[in-house]
Automatic annotation (TrEMBL):
Signal peptide: none
Organism: Streptomyces finlayi
Coiled-coil regions, chain positions: none
Annotated NAD-dependent epimerase/dehydratase domain residues: 3-238
Family the entry assigns: Belongs to the NAD(P)-dependent epimerase/dehydratase family.
Protein name: NAD-dependent epimerase/dehydratase family protein
Length: 316
């Protein structure tokens, strides 16, 4: 199998490339990435064909998709706050980028296209757990771009018979997720703060909950979907229905780092949802052998990665 990963130099893409490189059926991995948030270091030591550039570049995609069996479309500006600051940039990268990926896939003869959507599409719908058939209610331009991604996949399936599978990722975390950029996610930011002896910043009172999903589990599901050619134009939640509050997350980080952290509270951020928990019935039916990684194990692995790869060690 020849597989293209757009956004393959990013956090999830780099982890996925590493897992796919171990699969005997995968003969070639190609990565399309403009390195806007990603880093080639995430692909260090792997034998991949790298196509540096934007997913809005049709000619580049046509080159990368030639002869491909599958495309895992992860390239995006993956941040709610960033989309509030520059909605058009998010729209271009995430929505127009997806349309270009689908057009190029169509020209390439219809490889299997798996794409990353997000739990943010549930937005203001308060119902828990989040079942895929719930009404979507985006609270940010980012969420709109992800809903658009799903809608385009569905349209290309129904109009052109393209084999597709949209996944709604929840809060993915683990090795390779960095803290050193302005839109970093909460887990790497807090691990980095704990190891540096700095306080963590909590937006709100910390009772908000998230369905944190370990990146190794996400890659396991994506790999199974690729190898078994799982196709469905309806979105599938990629999370297991676990709920961890931000306050409990701090306790997990303190336990894994051996550092007690100070806490600073700030106002809630626009676009952030109070609670997020997946209904995982559809995921479990499609991938019955996949089991989630308990959060304390996943956090311990992420802390280990920070210590070794990023070089942040606990201050004395
Ligand atoms: P990331 O920022 O680490 O990876 C995104 C990659 O895409 C980067 O390597 C970046 O350089 C590349 N990229 C961005 N815009 C591009 C463009 N226009 N053309 C080519 N490459 C481009 O983010 P991630 O956490 O690995 O996220 C991967 C995907 O999963 C994204 O689509 C994101 O929206 C989605 N997602 C992630 C999470 C999460 O918790 N990490 C949750 C929900 C959805």
């Amino acid at each position: 199998m020849q597989i293209v990963i757009t956004g393959g130099a990013g956090f999830i893409g780099g982890n996925l490339a590493r897992v796919l490189a171990e699969q005997p059926h995968v003969t070639r991995i190609r990565v399309v990435d403009n390195l806007s948030t990603g880093d080639k270091a995430n692909l260090g030591g792997l034998d991949v064909d790298f196509f540096e550039g934007d997913v809005q570049d049709a000619a580049l995609l046509d080159q990368a998709f030639r002869g491909a069996d599958a495309v895992v479309h992860l390239a995006a500006l993956p941040s709610v706050p960033r989309s509030l600051q520059d909605p058009l940039a998010s729209h271009h990268a995430n929505a127009t980028g997806t349309l270009q990926v689908l057009e190029s896939a169509r020209r390439a003869g219809g490889p299997h296209v798996i794409a990353a959507s997000s739990s943010s599409v549930y937005g203001a719908n308060p119902h828990l757990p989040k079942h895929e058939d719930l009404a979507t209610a985006p609270m940010s331009p980012y969420a709109v771009t992800k809903l658009t991604t799903e809608a385009y996949l569905s349209a290309y399936h129904h109009s052109f018979g393209l084999p597709v599978l949209p996944f709604r990722f929840f809060n993915v975390y683990g090795p390779g997720q960095r803290a050193d950029h302005p839109y970093a996610a909460v887990i790497p930011k807090w691990i980095s703060a704990a190891l540096s002896g700095e306080p963590v910043t909590i937006h709100g009172d910390g009772t908000q909950t998230r369905d944190f999903t370990y990146v190794g589990t996400v890659c396991h599901v994506l790999t199974a979907a690729l190898l078994h050619r799982v196709m469905d134009p309806r979105p599938v939640n990629l999370a297991f229905g676990t709920r961890t509050s931000l306050l409990d997350l701090i306790t997990e980080i303190e336990s894994a780092t051996g550092q007690l952290t100070g806490r600073e509270h700030k106002a809630l951020r626009t676009g952030d949802v109070p609670h997020s928990q997946a209904d995982s019935a559809r995921l479990r039916a499609l991938f019955p052998t996949v089991t989630p990684q308990p959060i304390h194990e996943g956090i311990a692995t992420a802390v280990g990665w920070f210590r070794s790869a990023v070089g942040v060690t606990a201050s004395s």
